[in-house]
Specification:
There is one protein chain. The protein is an alpha+beta fold and about 190 residues long. The protein contains four helices and nine strands, in the order E-H-E-E-E-E-E-E-E-H-H-H-E. It has a five-stranded antiparallel beta sheet with strand order 2-3-4-7-8. The chain has a two-stranded parallel sheet with strand order 1-9. A two-stranded antiparallel sheet has the order 5-6. About 35% of the residues are buried.
């Protein structure tokens, strides 16, 4: 089932997410719904807060960008309770977008080499060193689990320059082709 994507301004995007336990109700169905939602919305990653749940679950399929970033070829993950360790402190700027911030992209500084530890949907443990653009995708999605958005990493001047676009999302003026949930009216 396609789930609505919660857009910028919705409080669920700013809350820290909870660890997921093996007794999580209908976990596999929820993960399948996240995959369907991500593909329908033409994303390469989706975190549970983006569909209204503050749980530490992420789905990533980086293969659509593999023609430009070869390290993304065949990289498809379901991440439960992911943890990131920074392996290289030098940051590189690259453009990022987000399904929760439609039609926006900004240059974001991030490290290019991480160690990722996570549980899969069967609660098997995994650890992998990840580099390049794939590391960026993982960091972006895991930020959602901490209540952070990629715009939190840009300069105050850049944020001010896109303030009008952000306000249009918050006020419900921004329309997109996939199901969405706008911020509650105050």
């Amino acid at each position: 089932m396609k789930l609505p994507i919660y857009l910028y301004g919705h409080p669920v995007l700013r809350r820290e997410s909870n660890d997921v336990e093996p007794d999580y109700p209908e976990l596999k169905k929820f993960i399948a719904d996240m995959w369907e939602t991500m593909y329908y919305s033409e994303g390469v990653g989706l975190a549970a807060p983006q569909v209204g749940r503050n749980d530490r679950i992420v789905v990533i399929d980086a293969s659509p960008v593999a023609d430009v970033f070869p390290e993304c070829a065949g990289k498809k993950f379901t991440l439960i309770n992911p943890e990131i360790e920074i392996l290289d402190g030098e940051k590189v700027n690259r453009d990022e977008g987000c399904l929760s911030l439609p039609d926006l992209s900004e240059s974001v500084p991030r490290v290019e080499h991480i160690r990722l530890s996570w549980l899969d949907e069967d609660f098997n443990e995994h650890t992998e060193e990840i580099s390049g653009f794939l590391a960026r995708i993982v960091q972006h999605e895991c930020d959602h689990l901490e209540g952070k958005l990629y715009i939190d990493h840009i300069s105050p001047i850049r944020k001010q320059l896109i303030r009008g676009k952000l306000n249009n999302i918050v006020s419900g003026k921004k329309r997109v082709a996939y199901p969405v949930k706008y911020a509650p009216k105050k």
